[in-house]
Amino acid sequence: MVAEPVVSVVIPTRNRPALAVRAVKSALAQTLAEIEVIVVIDGPDIATVEALSAIKDSRVSVIPLQYPFGGSEARNIGIRKGRGEFIGLLDDDDEWSPDKLSRQLELARQSAARYPVVTCRLIARSQITDEIWPARRINPRESMSDYLLCREGSIRQGEGFIQSSTLFVPRALMLQVQFESGLPRHQDWDWLIRASVHSGVEFLWVWEPLVIYNIGVDRNSVSSDRSLMASIKWVNGNRLVSSKARAYFYATQIAARCKTPATFWSVVCNTMRYPRALLIALGLALTPRTLVHSARRRSVLTHA
Hints:
The protein is α/β, with parallel strands linked by helices. It folds into 2 domains: about 5-215, Spore Coat Polysaccharide Biosynthesis Protein SpsA, Chain A (Alpha-Beta Complex); about 225-300, no CATH class. About 40% of the residues lie in helices and about 20% in strands. The chain has helices at about 15-30, 45-55, 70-80, 100-110, 145-150, 170-175, 185-195, 225-235, 245-255, 260-270, 275-285, 290-300, and strands at about 5-15, 35-40, 60-65, 85-90, 95, 115-125, 130-135, 170, 200-215. The strands form 2 sheets. A 5-stranded mixed beta sheet has the order 3-2-1-4-8. Strands 5-9-6-7 form a 4-stranded mixed beta sheet. The chain is globular.
């Protein structure tokens, strides 16, 4: 074990041994050697335990959980076990550039903020193409919910985007602002919105793609009906989401999945104050679902 790791890398995983091994090797390939890699296996998964046991590096520790707690709590468990000053989050299906942590550590050290949160751009990789996200940084007076959710220029995910594998965060902050346990969807957005209003937090960017965000059939998703209700419950229950951000969330995240007149009317009511959001919502809600799904695959439009 590293005596005093500077960064604790936390990787939650379950039932994807090959991806978990690839993620761990990506972390171990960092030019910053003073790290520990904590893999939290979210429930019984002998195949992943065995696959990870083949990695002979004292910096790696594996925490197999007896029961599945969900991705949010798996991250929290790994963060609490960490010993580093900073946390680097890595999803099991993503990869890092070798200099990712060193570049972010350097920027964090230069900051005068109590809690410098460093992110970076990423390569959104699908079977069709590679794209670099996000298109822009958050503006100084812009709320985090508006940055993440208000896609006024385009419905594309990459307009304003921060993904968990890009995050480099003081562990002290992550112990105070934890991931919401049991939240099935929008975990990253939820944490970012809450962290952004925490005292002493400053968001900083390395404006280069240092993460490969692999988009494909292997990414986990919940069923459509359950997913829809989880999305509606989250956006209506989060008081830090602005009314404008909520409108665009309904337009881009709910409209294409609504199946009932009641849900459609809810989409209209929540977007009507913002004409562009309403137009996007009507376009997605009234387009046949097969065409929407096809367009989303072509444009690499995904959900957080």
